[in-house]
Amino acid sequence: MERPPGLDRPRSATSAKRASVDHDGERPVRVFVVGEVRLYCEGLAHLLSAQPTVQVVGIAAPTQESMQQIATTDPDVVLIDSITARRGDTVRLISATSSKSHVIAFAVREEEAEVLACAEAGVAGYIACDASSAELAGILCSAGSGELACSPRLAAILFQRVASLTHERSRPQLPLLTPREQEILGLIDSGLMNREIASALSIELSTVKNHVHHILEKLGVTRRAAAAAKVRKLGH
Question: Which of 39, 126, 127, 137 could lock 150 by a disulfide, CB 3.0 to 4.6 Å apart?
Fold first, then answer.
């Protein structure tokens, strides 16, 4: 496994001691860095190596070979760049390779789409683009202890998404209507009669009547106006 310059140098007795125990008498969190840009990962590794609470055990590109390296080093945390994390396949491979390793995405923009993409991929924490080295070390230690690791802003985005999903699940659901039935129901709600709907959609009157019959049957009502009213009541 190739290491960043400086990590292969002989360590002093003091540095060797720090690699096994941090200033609080606890083992430092063991981190493996994965990313597309080698120079960026090496710089990050050097930055982390200066932290007494962190021990960098390797860096690699997101390849099948790196999965083997992660399995061999068995890190507490795998630090992965946000672009790779959003693709999802690498996160899943890491989780399958080393089930005890927590995957953390770094350089994440505090935007809902990016945060949610990382969450859906299965990452256990996030490090924002503007995080300091001290914040980075703190988040890695939290992740190594099995805690959700992210800034307050990123946590707020996740909680908002959870609340939104809860609201969607509790919202009354319509019976399954086809796209055409939904379209016709919208025209019914606009006040159009069957013949007018047929003309607007360029379909046969008999076809409209069949759709209306299915709509009423699915919604459990007997009148067109009642169907539209029921949909409005459910908030759709």
Answer: 126
Would you say how long the chain is, in residues?
236
Which tokens in the block code for residue 227?
Answer: 């169907």
What single letter denotes the amino acid at residue 176? Answer: L
Pair (70, 111) in one structural domain: yes
At 206, list the tokens: 């008999």
The pTM score is 0.54
Q: Is the pLDDT of residue 10 over 50?
A: no
Last residue of a domain, one of 129, 158, 187: 158
135-150: string of b/e by CB count within 10 Å (b at 16+)?
A: ebbbbbbbbbeeeebb
Residue 26 DSSP one-character state: S
In the chain the first and final C-alpha atoms are separated, in Å, by 57
Distance CA 168, CA 159 (A): 14
Q: How many structural domains is the chain composed of?
A: 2
Residue 48 domain boundaries: 13-158
Q: Is 177 helix (H, G, I), strand (E, B) or coil?
A: coil
Q: What is the pLDDT of residues 210-223, one digit of tens each?
A: 999 999 988 888 88
pLDDT digits (tens, 9 = 90+) for 52-104: 888 999 999 888 888 889 989 989 999 888 888 777 778 888 888 877 788 88
> Whole-angstrom Cα distance, residue 208 to residue 183?
11
